[in-house]
Amino acid sequence: GAPTISIFLKPPGVIRLGGSTTICCSCQRDNGHVVLYKNGHQLRTLELRGSSAEFSIFNATQKDVGAYSCHYLDGGTVMARSETLEIQVQEFQLPEPVLSVLPGHEVAAGMDVVFHCTIAHPKAGCFLYLEGRVEAFKFLSEQRGYNLSHVHKGDEGRYSCQCFTKDASFKWSAVSKTVDLVVR
């Protein structure tokens, strides 16, 4: 079949001003090249290494904000284009949240799990991220919990959360430490 290419941030979420992140472009091919685009302009080309190419951003500024995508090239021909990844850079003014998962990190397939993102701010909303996804996995409501029913192998992965407030302006927290979910 035709190759597909995906794009995601490691770690996911809004990037701290002055911080660093990695843009990952993942393809089911072992050879060829990946071209990184920002706002429709070609930025850099890398050779695929073990089906992925990683582009690092260090000391992030507002210049790094934008819409990023990856193109997979084989012999100079574009074979696949990724979705668009919106990158945001903000100062972090809220405390770092804590992510927990109940009943635990390892669960049997078919069980229900609940992710809780705890932050010392009464009005904050939070996003739950799953590494490897372009978008936030879920927006967490006032209770800052997310119920995942009947988990399966596809729900496994590295989760984190990040919170914000919408006062006069958006204020962001750092991204929580990660929590790995294993489905047996």
TrEMBL record:
Example GO biological process: immune response-regulating signaling pathway
PROSITE patterns assigned to the protein according to its UniProt record, in alphabetical order: IG_LIKE
Ig-like domain location: 3-86
InterPro entries: Ig-like_dom, Ig-like_dom_sf, Ig-like_fold, Ig-like_Receptors_ImmuneReg, Ig_sub, Immunoglobulin_dom
Assigned keywords, A-Z: Disulfide bond, Glycoprotein, Immunoglobulin domain, Repeat
Domain of life: Eukaryota
Protein's name according to its UniProt entry: IGSF1 protein
Gene that produces this protein: Igsf1
